[in-house]
Structures are given as C-alpha cells and as structure tokens.
TrEMBL record, chain A:
Family the entry assigns: Belongs to the SPCS3 family.
Primary residence: endoplasmic reticulum
Lineage, opening ranks: Eukaryota, Viridiplantae, Streptophyta, Embryophyta, Tracheophyta
Membrane association type: Single-pass type II membrane protein
InterPro entries associated with the record: SPC3
Protein localization: Endoplasmic reticulum membrane
Function: Essential component of the signal peptidase complex (SPC) which catalyzes the cleavage of N-terminal signal sequences from nascent proteins as they are translocated into the lumen of the endoplasmic reticulum. Essential for the SPC catalytic activity, possibly by stabilizing and positioning the active center of the complex close to the lumenal surface.
Keyword Transport: no
Cleavable signal peptide: 1-26
Species of origin: Platanthera guangdongensis
Record's protein name: Signal peptidase complex subunit 3
Top-level taxonomic group: Eukaryota
UniProtKB/TrEMBL annotation, chain B:
Main location: endoplasmic reticulum
Keywords: Hydrolase, Membrane, Protease, Transmembrane, Transmembrane helix
Protein name: Signal peptidase complex catalytic subunit SEC11
Reaction catalyzed: Cleavage of hydrophobic, N-terminal signal or leader sequences from secreted and periplasmic proteins
Organism this protein belongs to: Platanthera guangdongensis
Alphabetized InterPro entries for the sequence: LexA/Signal_pep-like_sf, Peptidase_S24_S26A/B/C, Peptidase_S26, Peptidase_S26B
SUPFAM superfamilies assigned to the protein according to its UniProt record, in alphabetical order: LexA/Signal peptidase
Positions of transmembrane segments: none
TrEMBL record, chain C:
Protein name: Signal peptidase complex subunit 1
Ranges in a coiled coil: none
Membrane topology qualifier: Multi-pass membrane protein
Keyword Endoplasmic reticulum (UniProt): yes
Subcellular location: Endoplasmic reticulum membrane
Keywords: Endoplasmic reticulum, Membrane, Transmembrane, Transmembrane helix
Length: 167, 195, 94
C-alpha cells in the first residue's frame, strides 16, 4: 500500500471481487421468485397439408396465442425468449420438435400479449408422416438474466390432430 | 513512496567495505529474486491450466468457456459476453442454446435450436439452429449441402453467462499490438516489482 | 504515505467498498433495478478511489523520525556489529 500504483491495484482487485459477489447474489435472488405464467394456444385455422417434391410433408396453420408471462420478470431479467413448438412422434423419429413461432420479450410491459399469426417457421416433417398425426403444441420460455444462470420452462397443450388427407 | 533512507556511513575506510558488501548482497538477492519470480510466474501459468482443465472435467465440454463474437443472438448475448458451457448426457431439445462447430469453419457458433428430430431406433438427433437476431435459419452457415447438425458437431450448451468480460479477448485477438503491449508491460512489472 | 497512513487507507478502502456494495444491493433490490445497483456501486468505487488512492496529507501524520547522522557519529559502534546491522537493513529495505 506504499505507492500510488499499489493502492490503485488493491482497490481495482477488491472492487471487482465485490462486484462479482453482488452480481452472483443478485442472480441468487432469482431463486426466490415463484413465477406463475399463463398461456393459451389455439389453432384458429388449418391452411394446408402438402407433400413436397422431395417426399416430405409440410403443413401450414394459423395460431392464436395469448399469454401472460409477466411473473417471469424479476429485477435480474434481461429478456424472455418464448417460442411455440409442435411436438409429435412418428414411426421414424421418437421425437420431433418443430419451432413454429418465437418472440423475444424485452420488458415486463410486453410480456402480456395476444396474437393471431400463421406459422413463422416451416412445419416440415422428415418423411411423409403428417397425415392424421396427433401433435402437441408446447409453449417454451427461456429466461435470460442480466447475469448468472439461465432457466427455462414450458407448458404443453395436447389434443391437436392433423387432417387425414392432403389439402 | 517514502523510502527510509539509509543512515549515511560516515568514515571512508568503512565506506569501501560497505559498498562491497552491499553489492554482494544485491547480487545474491537478484539471483533469488529472479528465481522466485520465475517460480511465481510458473505458479500463475500452471494454476490457470489447472482451472481450465478442471472446468473441462466438470462440464464435460472441450472448451467450457467461450466468448460471443457476433451479434446474432442479440439482445440475449451481446458481443463480448462470456458463456459457460455444459455438456451433459441429456438429449438436445428445441430452445436450448448450443455451441457448435461446422466442418471447415474454425470459429464455433452460438445459436438456438429450433428443430429437433430424434431417431426412434438409434437415438441420433438431427438439429436445426437459428440465431435469435437472424432472419433465417442456419442452413446457409452450414457446410455446403448440410441440412442438419448431428450430435458430434455440438460442443456444449450454454448454461450461464457473464456480460462484457470477453471484450478483453476480443480486443486482444483483433488488435495484436495491444496484446504485445500488455504482455510487455506486465513482464516489465513482474521484473521490476520487488514483492 | 507513512505506516499508519497505509493501514488507515487499507481499512478505509475495505469498509467503504463493502458498505457501498451492501447499500447498492439493497437499493437495487428494493427498486427492482439492476442498473441502480451498478450505478451506486460504481459511484462508491470512484469515491473510495478518490479517498484512498491519492497521498492525502491525512495519511502522513505519523512520519518516522530517523536518527540524525551526527548521532551515529557521536556513538560509533564496533565494526562487525555495524556492518551486520547495515546488511539487515539493506535486505529489509529491498
């Protein structure tokens, strides 16, 4: 501590250590929040189901998504990434997850929304297994903190079925 | 700052002996100093290596910490953020942020999984990724003709992150002069410091 | 900066930084604002640096008073003992 440089060094080291400590403490407080998000997804219109030239089935649908994810936001939340995936099983694949729509929510005010939209990403199967297929629509959310650990959760809605014939 | 001055030796006959002794003591001191400095430098390097390898063991990923280099995941990850990776046995699922290597590309990419197809019999996965801030999916980034990522392309999934810390690395890789300057200054400090 | 001053400066630095960290964390949590926490802490670090890094006169109130050379002249020591004590001092001082 006898020279200017040494004192500057000491203060830099010590202050950065404490900064790391308070940031991890802030990240730790996230454990105490118990979020209770609500969401509802409906298929408002089935647009079409077709076979592509390479033999893969492709479907198109219009979705009604309404959600209230405000309880996910804490003081350490930078953003919430929310997406809707169609999940189904085929004879070929044990699990298919196809993201249909996603959204980045950057503030609490925007976390309550209701939209009607046709699928943003293409709903294509690996093969031609979509006719008459049962599928889930699952809303996933990934919470990104300002610093620290990320966490994710989801909400599944079952009982959707694709039409039996191409149209 | 304030160094205690030696009491001046007073007589001339004493001065000569004192100088010789002092020179001797400085000589022996320097040898020891150089040695201790070499040892402490070695300690720094080896402990850094230990931490790195230990992290590799714990996380099971071959590079447990990566720096985000592009803005394709904004606003979640900005350029210069540091990501901690974890490679667990759990299968990859949509929505996870993975770090993957494309054949023929040196720099790994950090993007989000949007489609997963897991085989019934073998359990192998086909994965499609996309950057949150990009318009289209990553097929354009993949090797020519490659449609899906397989398990072996994936280095790990991101579990946590620290903002801004990675800027040091970015600056040093993009402006090598600063790196050499920094190494030079640090080296000088190590050589001149007496503690 | 003298010995007492160094001790004081180090103590002040630690107390200030920890206190500011606690205040910053509590205020940030209460306001639900991460940014407030960082700003308060940054301000605290700046203030602490201002207080403890420069060599303020307050840290120099306990100067060591060295023996005047003429004192040594008046009480010369035996040769061997003198050189030993000198050696000790040189190593200590580095």
């Amino acid at each position: 501590m006898h020279s200017f440089g040494q004192r500057a060094n000491a203060i830099a080291t010590f202050s950065l250590t404490i900064l790391a400590v308070i940031c991890s403490l802030a990240s730790f407080t996230d454990n105490f929040s118990a979020p209770s998000p609500k969401a509802e997804v409906k298929v408002s219109n089935f647009n079409w189901l077709q076979k592509q030239r390479n033999g893969n089935d492709e479907a198109s649908l219009t979705l009604n998504i309404s959600a209230d994810l405000q309880s996910l936001f804490t003081w350490n939340t930078k953003q919430v990434f929310v997406f809707l995936a169609a999940e189904y099983e085929t004879p070929k694949n044990a699990l298919n997850q196809i993201s249909l729509w996603d959204k980045i929510i950057s503030s609490k005010d925007l976390a309550k929304f209701s939209i009607r939209i046709s699928n943003k990403y293409r709903f294509i199967d690996q093969g031609s297994n979509l006719r008459g297929r049962d599928y889930n629509l699952t809303l996933h959310w990934h919470v990104m903190p300002k610093t620290g650990k990320m966490f994710a959760d989801k909400m599944s809605m079952t009982g959707f079925r694709l039409p039996e014939e191409y149209r | 700052m304030e160094k205690a001055g030696l009491p001046e030796p007073i007589t001339k006959r004493r001065r000569m002996g004192w100088i010789r002794e002092n020179v001797d003591s400085i000589r022996s001191l320097q040898k020891r100093q150089v040695l201790t400095q070499a040892v402490s430098l070695g300690m720094i390097v080896t402990s850094a290596l230990i931490i790195w390898k230990g992290l590799m063991c714990v996380t099971g990923s071959e590079s447990p910490v990566v720096v985000v280099l592009s803005g394709s995941m904004e606003p979640g990850f900005k350029r210069g953020d540091i990501l901690f990776l974890h490679m667990s046995k759990d299968p990859i699922r949509a929505g996870e942020i993975v770090v993957f290597n494309i054949d023929g590309r040196e720099i790994p990419i950090v993007h989000r999984v949007i489609k997963v197809h897991e085989r019934q019999d073998t359990g192998e996965v086909d994965v499609l990724t996309k950057g949150d801030n990009n318009f289209g999916d990553d097929r354009l980034l993949y090797a020519h003709g490659q449609l899906w990522l397989q398990q072996h392309h994936i280095m790990g999934r991101a579990v946590g992150f620290l903002p801004y810390v990675g800027w040091v690395t970015i600056i040093m890789t993009e402006k090598p002069i600063i790196k050499y300057l920094l190494i030079g200054v640090l080296g000088l400090l190590v050589i001149t410091s007496k503690e | 900066m003298d010995w007492q001053g160094q001790k004081l400066a180090e103590k002040l630095m630690q107390i200030f930084l920890v206190a500011f960290a606690i205040v910053a964390f509590v205020v940030g949590y209460a306001l639900g604002s991460f940014q407030a926490m960082l700003l308060i802490y940054a301000g605290g670090v700046l203030l602490t640096a201002l207080v403890t890094v420069p060599n303020w006169p307050a840290f120099n109130r306990h100067q060591l008073i060295w023996l005047d050379p003429s004192e040594v002249d008046r009480h010369p020591r035996p040769q061997a003992a003198a050189s030993q004590s000198l050696k000790k001092k040189t190593t200590k001082q580095k």
